[in-house]
Amino acid sequence: MLVQGTPDQLIEVLRETTVSLVRRDGPDLTARQLGVFLTVYLGEGPHTVRGLASALNVSKPAITRALDRLGEFDFARRKTDPKDRRSVLVQCTVKGSALLREISATMVEAGTAFQKVTRAPAAREKASAS
Fold first, then answer.
1. How many helices (H) and strands (E) does the chain have?
2. What is the pLDDT of residues 25-68, one digit of tens each?
3. Does the pTM exceed 0.70?
4. Which of 22, 49, 116, 129 would you call most buried, defined as having the most Cβ atoms within 10 angstroms of its Cβ?
5. What pLDDT, on the 0 to 100 scale, is given for residue 36?
6. In angstroms, rounded to a whole number, what is the distance separating the alpha carbons of residues 58 and 40?
7. Which residues on adjacent β-strands are paired with residue 80?
8. What string of DSSP letters covers 81-126?
9. Bridge-partner residues for 89, per DSSP?
């Protein structure tokens, strides 16, 4: 589902989603950790530390720290690349996939609720004009 709207509307969906994630039981992710997480889960893989650093335009140590935390939460896992044992691949996990579904559902709910709120005044104005 592609949500369309003004920047103010989209930022409100982001706010509602973030607040929902903060309120839920479970670990909180920093913006960087969430950025790495979403890049791993939504971007075409395989993903490496070097590739993630390049894609997000941050240092490899910053990616490593984010992956350390994501690994602690079991949202991502690192595995030695069997083709190049010097390289590490970043893999999705079942728990991470569940988090992605939760984030997606939360965004849909926030977008739907926001659309209902913004449509209600317009519908009342249209009804009173009739």
1. 5, 3
2. 888 899 999 999 999 999 998 999 999 999 999 999 999 999 99
3. yes
4. 49
5. 97
6. 15
7. 88
8. ETTEEEEEEEEE-HHHHHHHHHHHHHHHHHHHHHHHHHHHHHHHHH
9. 48, 79
Per the structure block, which two tokens stand in for 122? 């317009």
Residue whose structure tokens are 């069997």: 82
Structure-block tokens of residue 34: 């969430």
Name the one residue in this structure whose structure tokens are 């602690």.
Answer: 72
User: Whole-angstrom Cα distance, residue 96 to residue 70?
Assistant: 9
Tell me if 66 sits within 8 A of 33, measured CB to CB. yes
Q: What is the pLDDT of residues 65-95, one digit of tens each?
A: 999 999 999 999 999 989 888 889 999 999 9
Q: Which CA distances in Å does 36 have to 8, 71, 72, 116, 126? A: 25, 12, 14, 32, 45
The CA distance from 55 to 47, in Å, is: 10
Angle, helices 94-129/7-23, rounded to nearest 10 degrees: 130
Total count of residues recorded for the chain: 130
